[in-house]
Design goal:
The complex is a heterodimer of chains A (407) and B (358). Chain A is α/β, with parallel strands linked by helices. Helix content of chain A is 42%, strand content 21%. In chain B, the strands form two sheets. In chain B, strands 1, 4, 6, 7, 8, 9, 10, 11, 12, 13, 14 and 15 form a twelve-stranded mixed β-sheet that branches. A three-stranded mixed β-sheet of chain B has the order 3-2-5. Classes of the chains: A alpha/beta (407), B alpha/beta (358).
């Protein structure tokens, strides 16, 4: 196994376990100046990477790490702490980061580090240029913060229950990303009774467009809308938990059909302009997904615009959820009103990205859904934007203890 | 049996000019498409959504096709449950869902008949002493037929004086095999088995079969995937077959459980030939449009046999190249192709990842 930050070296489980176990489990109270300054340093480092803007996810991360944005976060969150209570770190947090959304481990680590926790971050062993860049930048800035650096350990190892167990044994919290399989697998490893798990199972996301609003947009506005949707859907090959899989057009059916056609036309232009491509086998996967859906829905209509943008209009049924395959494949529904989505919502549903609705319409829908689904309701373009309130949890609350102090 | 199929069966295999053959095939496949549309609701839904403008199929390439994975996800049937004669299952790799192929008596009979027409063209009309490179025990398993057992049982019809070369532990029965080869040293023999088994359990386990004065015909299929790690090329396979069996004609074949009976046999030039009643097209990876000869793409297989399930036109996940039409140096007519490998699963980015499990 390897340590990947703040030092890069080959290690044995024994040596790294020893180094971690003998270091403090907390660094300071949440949102210490040092922790914020450290983040600002990483932010600058990331902004200075040549072509940072081309790696849009790294750019978003750098933006999130700015001192200004973190001070605002601090203020908002601390003001939510109940009176006569103080937020304190929980202790050492063991993060199991996902392999395919590379930047995720930094967000996970940063929130925990800001909360004053010591951290072990398991970083995917799959080679990745983005991960290398991120680890190098973090390591370099951490040099100026030796006290914090001494409690932070980025490690990488191939799936190995012995290592996972040893690191779980010396942690107070585990954050398990990577979906159902990873969560189940990590949880199957025996762990201390007091260990707290924060888990991120598979999630499913939707997008909704109000047909009438779209029909009133100028061509330019529609282009912007399609671009925002493109960023939401295609950045992680439509495979992130927050990438929309089902697209709902809301309104009278004729208007929905018209808006649908216009929207897909606009999106196709963006897909072409951005030169989006997928693996060779993906055209078959999409065709298979479409076939599987059509086999069970005699009214399904396929719109096969290009190998990179296929969409199939159906009557909603549970099975369309399992048929989706990513890479530019969308299930389209026409609904009379947005709140009709309530009868379809399940606990799996995470993000509903929306365009063209009023606050009132969104809030009616939210009331109708009554918590049966959707943890995030955000405008087009923000589906993938990580926030410390994620999957219905305020991560700062999960990673701190609320200490009650009366006198 | 339809007239088309009758004609294609009764004409000696590998003799029809492609153009003539394709016209008959297109006609027959169109009929099958509309039959399956009437009898299989899932298939009807798929064709309506995916191929809405192909009711007038002018060319083979216009015939709707199903991605092969659907046979793993759905039990597609065009017959009433009472007419189901047996359900074939692919052996499948560990952990993967097997394909399910639903057969009625008629389709099972057509499959056997089709195989007979192909094999008599390859092995000759006379039954030869037959060495089966497999274990007899696999043919005795009860319940659902595995593709492997079905393959062995199907081929047994084309030989006589059978000997199973492997014991129940899949070890070669060296003494028995030698005695059998000795007993048939002066007459042609027919050897059959699955490619990986023939290599690992037979060709590499056996020394020379002794002096034989008559040739052998070795027919093997099932794919090279398991042999890639051992770096066994078709040439090496053939060389070793000669070392063991002496004078031998080796025929690889390509086929799948979703289209049993329609096999594509390798000729003396190393190309897979389409029989009269089935063919293969190659499609572009990305656009899925039909490709001209000599371009690599995804193989689509078409066959007139599947009547009880809508598997007459299937888009495989195998990569291949159409090598030519009617002009193979081996003398066989029809279109011919090669298989280059299997499409690797798309590796897309995303939140859910099993790579990290553990």
């Amino acid at each position: 196994m390897k340590q990947v930050f703040p030092q890069k070296r080959d290690v044995t489980l024994e040596t790294i376990r020893e180094a971690i176990a003998s270091s403090p489990t907390t660094t300071a109270a949440p949102f210490s100046d040092a922790a914020i300054t450290l983040c600002e340093g990483i932010s600058r480092k990331l902004f200075s990477i040549p072509n940072a803007q081309e790696m849009s996810e790294v750019y978003s991360l750098a933006f999130f790490l700015r001192e200004g944005s973190l001070r605002k976060l601090k203020q908002e969150w601390l003001s939510s702490v109940p009176s006569n209570c103080t937020a304190m770190p929980r202790g050492r947090v063991f993060h199991i980061a996902p392999a395919n959304v590379e930047v995720m481990f930094v967000y996970s680590w940063v929130i925990s580090m800001l909360c004053g926790n010591a951290n072990i971050v398991r970083i995917p062993s799959k080679p990745s240029r983005i991960i290398d860049t991120l680890c190098d930048s973090m390591s370099e800035v951490l040099k100026d913060f030796p006290e914090i650096a001494a409690t932070q350990f980025g490690v990488s190892y191939e799936a190995d229950n012995t290592i996972t167990k040893a690191l779980s044994d010396i942690s107070q919290v585990r954050i398990i990303w990577g979906g159902d399989e990873t969560v189940k697998s990590i949880r199957s490893v025996e762990a201390p009774a007091g260990l707290r798990d924060v888990v991120f199972p598979n999630r499913f996301s939707w997008a909704a467009v109000k047909a009438e609003s779209l029909l009133q947009m100028s061509e330019e506005q529609r282009g912007q809308l399609a671009t925002r949707f493109f960023n939401d859907a295609y950045l992680f090959d439509q495979r992130a938990c927050s990438s929309p899989q089902i697209v709902v057009f809301v309104g009278e059916e004729a208007k929905s059909a018209k808006a649908h056609a216009l929207f897909m036309g606009d999106l196709q232009k963006i897909v072409e302009a951005r030169k989006y491509t997928t693996d060779a086998s993906h055209a078959i996967e999409k065709l298979s997904a479409a076939a599987l859906i059509a086999a069970r829905d005699s009214g399904a209509v396929l719109d096969n615009r290009s190998p990179e943008l296929m969409n199939i209009t159906v009557t909603y049924s549970e099975h369309v959820r399992t048929a989706t395959c990513g890479g530019g494949f969308f299930v389209v529904l026409y609904l009379p009103t947005l709140d009709a989505i309530a009868s379809m919502a399940t606990a799996r549903d995470q993000t509903l990205s929306h365009a063209g609705f009023t606050e009132g319409e969104l809030s009616t829908a939210l009331t109708e859904i009554r918590g049966r689904g959707f943890d995030r309701i955000v405008p087009f373009g923000q589906a993938l934007q990580f926030e410390p309130i994620w999957d219905g949890m305020n991560l700062m609350n999960e990673l701190t203890r609320t200490v009650r102090c009366l006198w | 049996m339809s007239d088309t199929l009758e004609t294609l069966f009764s004409t000696p295999q590998f003799t029809l000019p492609t153009r003539e053959r394709d016209e008959l095939l297109t006609k027959g496949l169109k009929e099958l498409t509309s039959q399956h549309e009437q009898r299989c609701a899932e298939y009807r839904g798929i064709v309506r959504a995916l191929f809405p403008r192909t009711t007038e199929c002018a060319r083979l390439a216009d015939i709707p096709y199903l991605p092969v994975v659907l046979f793993k996800k759905l039990a597609l049937s065009s017959v009433a449950p009472s007419e189901i004669f047996k359900t074939l299952r692919s052996s499948g790799t560990t952990g993967s869902t097997p394909s399910r192929v639903i057969l009625d008596r008629d389709t099972a009979r057509l499959q056997a008949l089709a195989l007979k027409h192909i094999m008599t063209s390859v092995v000759g009309p006379k039954r030869l002493p037959m060495l089966l490179v497999d274990s007899e025990s696999i043919t005795q398993s009860t319940g659902e037929h595995s593709a492997r057992a079905a393959g062995v049982i199907g081929m047994m019809n084309f030989g006589r004086d059978h000997l199973f070369a492997l014991d129940a532990n899949e070890q070669v029965k060296t003494d028995e095999v030698k005695a059998w080869l000795e007993a048939h040293r002066d007459e042609p023999i027919f050897v059959f088995g699955f490619t990986a088994i023939v290599w690992h359990r037979f060709l590499t386990q056996l020394q020379s079969a002794g002096q034989r004065s008559a040739p052998a015909i070795l027919v093997h299929g099932g794919g090279w995937k398991k042999l890639i790690q051992s770096a066994v090329s078709p040439e090496r396979f053939k060389t070793r077959a000669r070392e063991v069996l002496g004078e031998v004609r080796v025929h690889d074949y390509y086929g799948m459980v979703e289209q049993v009976g329609s096999i594509y046999v390798e000729c003396t030039q190393g190309f897979l030939h389409t029989p009269n009643f089935a063919t293969a097209l190659v499609r572009d990876y990305r656009t899925l449009r039909e490709l001209p000869p000599h371009q690599e793409g995804i193989i689509q297989v078409l066959s007139l046999l599947p009547k009880s399930y809508p598997g007459h036109s299937i888009l495989t996940e195998d990569i291949g190249v159409l090598e030519g039409v009617d002009d193979c140096a081996c003398g066989w007519r029809g279109s011919y192709f090669t298989v280059k490998g299997r499409l690797s699963r798309a590796e897309l980015r995303g939140c859910s990842d099993t790579a990290n499990v553990g």
